[in-house]
Amino acid sequence: MSPAAFWQIVLELLAAGALSVPFGHYLARVFQDQKTWLDPIVDPIDRAIYRLIGPDAVNQAMDWKGYAGNMLLTNLLMGLLIYAILSWQGHLPWNPLHFADVSPFLAFNTAASFITNTNWQAYGGESTLSLFSQMAAITFPMFASAATGLVAAIAFFRALGPACDKGRNLGNFYRDFVRALTRVFLLPCLFITPILVWAGSPETLAGMVTAHLVQGGIQHIPMGPVADLEVIKHLGTNGGGFFNANSAHPFENPTPLSNVIETLLMMVTPMALVIAFGRMVASPRLARVMYGVMAFMLVVAVSVMVIAEQRGTPLLAHAGLMQHAGFGQMGGNMVGKEVRFGITQSAIFDTVSTAFTTGSVNSLLDSYTPLGGMVALVQMMLNCVFGGDGVGLLNFLMYGLFAVFIAGLMVGRTPEFLGKKIEKREIVLASLALLVHPLIILAPAAWSLMAPYGVNALGNSGSHGLSEVLYAFVSAAANNGSAFAGLNGNTPWYNIVLGLVMLFGRYASIIFMLALGGSLAAKPRVQETIGTLKIDTALFGGFWLATIIVVGALTFLPALVLGPIAEFFALYGHHALSGMGR
Amino acid sequence: MSAAVGHRPEPFEIHRKGTRELVIEAVVDAFRKFRPGVQIRNPVMFIVWLSMFVTLALTFDPGLFGKTTVGAAYDGFVTVILFFTVWFANFAEALAEGRGKAQADSLRQTKTDVTARRIVDDDTFEVIMAGALRKGDRVRVESGEIIPTDGEILEGIASVDESAITGESAPVLKEPGTDIFSTVTGGTRILSDWLVFRVAADPGHTFLDRMIHLVEGARRQKTPNEIALTVLLAVLSLIFVIVVATLKPLAAFLHIDLDVATLVALLVALMPTTIGALLSAIGIAGIDRATRFNVLAMSGRAVEAAGDVQTLILDKTGTITMGNRQATEFVPLPGHSEADVASIALAASWYDTTPEGRSIVALAVARGAKHDPAWERGQGVLFTAETRMSGTDLPDGRKARKGAVAAVARYVQEGFKASAPAELKGAAELVARKGATPLALAIDGDLVGVIGLSDVLKPGMRERFAHMRSLGIKTIMVTGDNPITARVIAEQAGVDDFVAEAKPEDKIRVIRSEQARGRLVAMTGDGTNDAPALAQADVGLAMHSGTVPAKEAANMIDLDSDPTKLIDVVAIGKQLLITRGALTTFSIANDVAKYFAMLPAMFMLALPGVSALNVMRLATPESAVLSALIFNAIIIPILIPLALRGVRFQPTTANRMLARNVLLYGLGGLIVPFIGIKAIDLLLSPFLH
């Protein structure tokens, strides 16, 4: 790794870390109904919204079923709304380029994609969607889905928190949802959107500009309300672009500065949520251990990706191309990367985007080296290297439950997590949550590779083709939404199946985890003694990490061997692992 | 405590079959357990069992699932290894059950063909089979007979040999009216005299029946934690079924034809078969360990709960202390030497036959006091509740007295018009502060000194409580003593807390308040008034010598009637859970090495680069797959002794325990299979060509 790359990684991670601490404390205050300095401004807005919803609905205490039920209902209605807007966009306003209605399969896929915080895009934004659709069917669910994920995690924290001893009350979904929208997601958008506009992002209702080119001829350049979308796209770990090229497009991500801002925005909420978890369950030490484990995975991932890309490919070396970094020369594998970002800023962005399951990309993953592409895949397979807003931490806690179960036995006690006994019901629910991920990735991927309608959509054969299909389902299941490219996802088969995978990947895991929370909340708390397993130690953090690697990652090893690992060894031969430290 | 686990003499030794016999029986039983009805109870092994039939079918028709590159011999070899994998698991369970079965057989012998004399009315009785007795019947038993069923004694006094149940050969005296020692157990033998008792249990529900069911494991139900672990292992297995089933089409996309036998081998190797095979044996062996300690757990759940206990409630008398007060010191009052005190104490106690009196004699002799033969002509004065004194009227007319301090002081004042010296109060308090009971000693009007009587701690209790503390277990002593004495004993024994001047109902109050604080509580008891507390406690250990209500309320019974066993039971429970966790960790960690053996083997022909992952440098793909599968099978019998014995358990903090077990079974589980698979490959590969 070059020194410049090293320092960029260190500084960006430190900056995100520094931001996450106060933001985490702020999140904890918001969801514990404590005072914040924003209250005088936001309280009246909240009250107005509460009046609209109805005071009964916002004040009632909800058990896990009530919480999950209202969440699902709200999400279903929003999903239908998105579907309707897309299906009738031709008849709706703000359609300056006169785009036609979106086809049913694509509309279903897109509605499922955006309501589940996935933001998989089987279409090109600038050539398919009206400005109204971009705002009402894309930007709006970006707020709503991020808030949904966030409050699901918050409800789970409450279940584990000190207030819940033999209790059932996980809070009120509507109240949490409104507070998440107004206090967590909308406010930063107001402040950061102007910065992106200043950097060069458009924020307009004009459909396009027409440019008269120097060499003659004219070019129509589509634009629209881009800058605000960019903020929530990253802050809400959404990832869906206004344009097909996503954050590689100069309007979405104009400069290296905007690139850094977007990278930090992706990281800050999931990181802060760990801090908020520590406050809400009254165990900041545990939160530090969890933060450390996730940060460790992230550092390893970003390092491998940067090193792999800087190393370049032997095929180009054989062709006589210089791939070493030098003056005015970035070196390494620049295929599919923007010159204004270079290898390091591209690799950091895409690592963060797959770790925090945002799915936004500023460079083409299909053109990454096999190892670089594999890092992206593995992070989404784990789905808990911080992960998306709320759900990433829930996944991490699910692995923690297994780690506690096994380690707890090893200290001679029936296992307990934060003083709550883990018994059959908890293991059943956590196991179901664990089972969903490999099932909805491997089964449809295998099916797609057997069926002609699956294979025909591929851009490549062999290991790389396998990686493309695998990536699509991993991305959908992890609600990431980034694409490896090379796969034409806009076919009935992929639109429907990927849509279903996104829905299962999102709601199955949230429902199981909320049920788990409800089950833990209802249990009496066992007093902690020195005979109790300490889970806020580095030792247990290591065990937690090992559980994630062995249970989470090894499940996918056979598929990875056939895809990126085979490709890696084919490309580098027996020298595959030499010179990695460079 | 670690040394205590498993080293006690085994009460059933005489009835017990030799290890050889047990192994032979288990070998046969392991074949019987191939029945689907048995297999389906263990999801992990059930999948292996099913897989075996798949490869068996392939052995006869290798082309069953399409074209194949391997022959019937390979399929056959895989089938044989899978057969042994299942057989080893069956063997482990059969071996664990075998011990219990042998015990049950010997218990059953004691209850066959017993007749009973049922009392019809006051003068007549009828002889019927023991099985016809019902609760409430009255039965008479006489010397030499086997007691037909459980009951409460109404009349008579007799010595009873309970060795069939407890293994303790010394006879026990039974009589009515005492809270304990008034119950008889079916299957025990009356050695002398006769008893009339009321039947306390219907057939099938006697203590012996429960014991047989329990040790036999016939109706053994999985414990809650075992069920949870079974679910986890089943789901992990299901995930690997998905992984392996989807691998075939994924590979087919790359034009790689994976053999079904190899896929089956991969599935079986990846599934947590090691813990799956040993899980049931671990549970049975855990209960068996308790039984060998002569503690009868009413369910496996109770043994498991014992590992969780955070508070132990212990009676002072009989549990922490020997239960009889003994003279431990002489404190002379001004004008007297310790030798004077010893000499007069000896005189005052010469006719005292109580244990306390004997202990004063012993202490006095130890301090050099000499017995005067003239005392033989003296007169012993017995203790009465009125005088609260005892002593000796010596032949020379002097009166030696010892007794409660106030009583003796009044005696010298009223009898001899002498006032007690001011120092008496101080000396008595000095003794009381040490937790001892002071007795004043006087000869005529002369107060000579104070005798200290102390309750003596059982040896080793302090160390045991220190161990408990290091495990995070709080010990609470309950005693009827005054707070001063209680405090001293509590400090000497090193218990964390005590309840003084306790009434029987205080126990249940203490249990409830501990439970309200989220702690799991264990206690021992024997009397009927202990029954509610025994039922309230998370772990209640009743003494076998105790009453029927106490035994019914408890979830464990100690056949030796030794309350300190509670401490051992906690260790047994912990050891059971640790063994489960350690083998689960080991089993899952093994997967890493198995991946490195099998994945390159499966793909290196089609994707040559992948052979770089063959870090063990295994000879051929076939050898690699078979070596991993063989390792997966033989690790089961290798770990059977560990599963049955339990992993080593040392009382220490949870953190240290975790560090040790993660290092041993986690890291060990990571490394051992690399070595094992390579070794098997070296042995196997020459034969594969």
Helices of chain B, by number, come to 22
Into which percentage range does the β-strand content of chain B fall? 15-25%
SSE string of chain A: HHHHHHHHEEHHHHHHHEEHHHHHH
Q: What is the topology, as strand order, of the major beta sheet of chain A?
A: 1-2
Regarding quaternary structure, how should these chains be classified?
heterodimer
Radius of gyration of chain A: 23 Å
Can you offer a commentary on this structure?
The complex is a heterodimer of chains A (582) and B (689). Chain A contains 21 helices and four strands. By secondary structure, chain A is mostly helical. Chain A has a domain at 389-564. A two-stranded antiparallel sheet of chain A has the order 1-2. The longest helix of chain A is centred in the N-terminal third of the chain and has 30 residues, at 131-160. Chain B is elongated, with a radius of gyration of 34 Å. Chain B has five domains: 1-110 and 223-289, no CATH class; 115-215, Calcium-transporting ATPase, cytoplasmic transduction domain A (Distorted Sandwich), CATH 2.70.150; 305-320 and 458-563, HAD superfamily/HAD-like (Rossmann fold); 324-456, Calcium-transporting ATPase, cytoplasmic domain N, CATH 3.40.1110.10; 569-621 and 657-689, no CATH class. In chain B, the strands form three sheets. In chain B, strands 1, 2, 3, 4, 5, 6, 7 and 8 form an eight-stranded antiparallel sheet that branches. In chain B, strand 15 and strand 16 form a beta hairpin. The chains are: A mainly alpha (582), B alpha+beta (689).
